[in-house]
Design goal:
Blueprint lengths: L13 H29 L4 H9 L4 H30 L5 H15 L3 H16 L3 H29 L11 H19 L16 H5 L2 H28 L8 H13 L7 H10 L4 H39 L1
Helix pairs in contact: 1-2, 1-11, 3-4, 3-6, 3-9, 3-12, 4-5, 4-12, 5-6, 5-12, 6-7, 6-9, 6-10, 9-10, 10-11, 11-12
Length: 323
Amino acid sequence: MSNANPTPRKPAPLWQRALPWLIAVACFAFLYFFRIGPAAAARELSVPAYLLEIFATVRWGAWLPLMIGYSIFFFLIDSLVVWRIINWFNARTAYTAILPIRASAYIISILNEQVGKGVMAVYLNRRDGVPGWQVGSSMLFIMFCEVFYLLFWATLGVGLRWDHIDEAFHVIPLVGAGALVFFIVWVQFFKGRIAPNLALRDRDILLAFRRAEWWQYVVVMLLRSPALLAAVVVYWAALELFGVEADLLDLFAYLPVIFASAALPLPLRAAPIVLWDLIYSGDPGRMTTFGLVQHNFFIFFNAAIGLLFLRRANRDLLGSSDS
């Protein structure tokens, strides 16, 4: 039962709101002073001139349709995952009805991907009357499966390329093994076989986990996987268009970790940009340019898709609120 007069939430402390920006500034300062600056000085160029020189060498005519096609494909897969989970745990709805929900949430995802999922929960609550906490449980289920699907592909990639990738990635199979044990315990807990009298399990925010069978986690990871498989090819081709030689199979290990870092709430996707530079360290200016353009084009183009659906999304919300 909802409270008629809910207590307003207190705003987050200033330090908490500023922390993501401070970390992002630190990331870009590291790139500027320790990576790009020295590389530009070695070529007797200013940093802007160095970056513009790299920018001019990219084959943009091939890169743009490549990224547009991938962004649209990702949107369709992403919406399929949301549709499948909502139909399992919350309400029967058509795939086409999910498209404006997911697309409009991309606009908010410019700031924070997880906040974007929260917007989807609010949308479904207002449009279909599904209790907000229960929809929120489905969004948590999506995030939980995302972590495990990325970890699975990273573990497989490291196993395939063990002797060819950076040794720092050799820890991933150990993390994967620990995650598998955690997953087994997690499923048993929500089936009531561990701590059966614990009331925490009965909260609405955990509804999806209570209802889920182990195979549904696997189905979600399988549905999501075509987006990663496509990303491996797309990012490999994009690296080539930026003048960077990369091994296609290495990206099976690298991309899941980079994508996981992109989910951190840092402005301008600072974390994956730093990772690209550290992994392909031979040309810091080129990799910084690649990471900055690649990840920010993706989120801004997805937001543009959201704008195309925004009118319908608003119509659905207003219609549900008036009924």
